[in-house]
Inverse folding.
């Protein structure tokens, strides 16, 4: 008994330490982003920085307006979620509740493969296949646009949504479904009216994971979106918050206003993700109370 008690105390200490490390990491990142991002915002002006529509960081008279980046990130994320969430959810329902075992055995490795493909490969395929296709279909001068970025992001968020949603659906107690079937409901009605509502917390977690990847993706987006600081338009070359940082950080001089402004973009992106997670968390809690 003493050995078991000692092992239990040691494991509790290990778990506690891991929790403290995680919290400390978040706090340190938050503190660093605030310290690194505020100086440029103070120098440029909060209103001019957030609502300025012109980004010319290397001009003789530089301008640092990031409203095009913010709006592009918002519309790009919304577009990816609108396309990716229904496809991912229906795929998870199919795999968890309706697919024959042989079919599921084929689809599962495909989903896992999607999760393991590097971002640069998504970007490369999008640049070589999707961008020319959009250019030809819509008769554009360039297919590198917001639409291409939305489609690539929609594919990239699928693995997380499918995996988490499928796990949540499989965790629904069989008694719920058996009771529904016993009352005369069909299997499809049972899945959509009993299983899906019972697994909504897990499904919402998968959606949050997908949104986080859509907001934070840079490499694939920079290869298909055109990387031009325009206000968002479906067929216009655009630049996201993440790609703005990735495209200029390599040549921004240390201590320059340009470099500090890029850190400020990182702070805005950090706040953007925190707000999204907070809003989704509140919606989820309200749903659970109901």
């Amino acid at each position: 008994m003493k050995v078991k008690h000692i092992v239990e105390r040691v494991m509790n200490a290990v778990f506690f330490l891991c929790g403290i490390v995680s919290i400390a990491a978040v706090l340190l990142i938050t503190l660093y982003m605030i310290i690194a991002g505020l100086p440029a915002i103070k120098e440029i002006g909060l209103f001019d920085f957030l609502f300025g529509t012109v980004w010319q960081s290397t001009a003789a008279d530089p301008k640092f307006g990031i409203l095009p980046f913010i709006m592009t990130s918002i519309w790009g994320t919304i577009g990816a979620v609108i396309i990716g969430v229904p496809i991912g959810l229906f795929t998870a329902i199919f795999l968890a509740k309706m697919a024959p075992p042989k079919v599921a055995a084929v689809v599962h490795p495909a989903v896992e493969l999607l999760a393991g493909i590097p971002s640069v490969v998504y970007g490369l395929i999008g640049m070589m296949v999707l961008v020319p296709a959009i250019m030809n279909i819509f008769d554009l001068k360039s297919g590198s646009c917001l639409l291409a970025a939305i489609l690539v992001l929609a594919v990239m968020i699928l693995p997380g949504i499918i995996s988490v949603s499928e796990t949540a659906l499989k965790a629904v107690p069989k008694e719920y479904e058996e009771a529904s079937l016993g009352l005369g409901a069909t299997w499809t009605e049972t899945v959509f009216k009993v299983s899906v509502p019972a697994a909504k917390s897990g499904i919402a977690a998968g959606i949050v994971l997908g949104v986080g990847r859509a907001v934070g993706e840079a490499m694939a987006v920079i290869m298909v979106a055109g990387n031009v600081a325009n206000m968002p338009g479906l067929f216009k070359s655009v630049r996201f918050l993440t790609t703005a940082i990735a495209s200029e950080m390599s040549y921004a001089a240390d201590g320059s206003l340009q470099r500090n402004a890029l850190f400020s973009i990182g702070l805005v992106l950090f706040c953007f993700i925190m707000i999204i997670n907070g809003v989704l968390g509140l919606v989820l809690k309200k749903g659970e109370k109901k």
In short: Residues 180 and 189 are 9 Å apart (CA to CA). The chain has 13 helices and two strands. The longest strand covers residues 55-56. Residues 2-44 form the longest helix (43 residues).
